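Marked as duplicate of an earlier ticket. Keeping the data here for the record.
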Amino acid sequence: MHKERIRFAVSAAYVWIAMVAFEFETGHWVRLTMSAVTATLAFAAFLRFHTERALEVHR
């Protein structure tokens, strides 16, 4: 009976750790994706600003 409880506790701990690892990895990919989106939008805004400013100087 005692070994069954230990086996259950170990399997429950394994399931919990697997869930936490999956959530952490998912959060990591979401954070990485959002960082890439932010960097792309910032670059596009800078490029637009730079282009408009360069056109004003040459008028």
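See parent ticket for discussion. Residues 2-57 form the longest helix (56 residues).
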